[in-house]
Amino acid sequence: MPERMNVESFNLDHRTVAAPYVRLADTKTLPAGDVIEKYDVRFTQPNVAHLEMPVVHSIEHLFAEKSRNHSDRVIDFSPMGCQTGFYLILQGSWDYDDVLALVADTLEDVLAADEVPAANEVQCGWGANHTLAGAQDAARAFLAQRESWSQVTA
After folding, report:
1. Residue 31 is assigned to a structural domain of this protein
2. How many domains are contained in the chain?
3. What's the CATH code of the domain at 90?
């Protein structure tokens, strides 16, 4: 077994997970006592499939914007470099079902969107690298598997 690494996801055996899922990846208590939780929102099976970059980019913009309509405790929603999912970082301790509801409600907003927010040269570093249709297809596929979101391994 390799030595334990500082990055939580580097200690996860990616061969044993079964995407799609939503898993609590880490909880930290900051020096002032604030708690943050990091969730692994995995869209595709690691080392088998991935999301294309315009899809990743568009989901990032849409989820980051729309999730804050459901909670003021969203700190960040950022893509994984492997292009298989995202990290959702939330302030405070959350009930897992409330996290699932936040994800589902936000992805429903993605399906209802008529544009990718801030997908332009003024507000984005690569404004042309977006696809609303691709983001909606990925959101639709993820939502269709909601019953399996809590099952991380096969």
Report:
1. yes
2. 1
3. 3.30.1360.80
Tokens of 109: 């907003």
Q: What is the pLDDT of residues 104-114, one digit of tens each?
A: 999 999 999 99
Q: What residue ranges in 30-139 does DSSP mark as E strands?
A: 35-42, 74-79, 85-91
Is 90 a domain residue? yes
Instruction: Tell me the C-alpha to C-alpha distance, in Å, between residue 33 and each of 30, 67, 80, 117.
Output: 5, 24, 27, 34
The reported pTM is 0.95
Angle at 125 between CA 84 and CA 8, to 5 degrees: 35
What region, left, alpha or beta, does residue 118 occupy, with left being phi > 0 and alpha being psi -120 to 50 degrees?
left
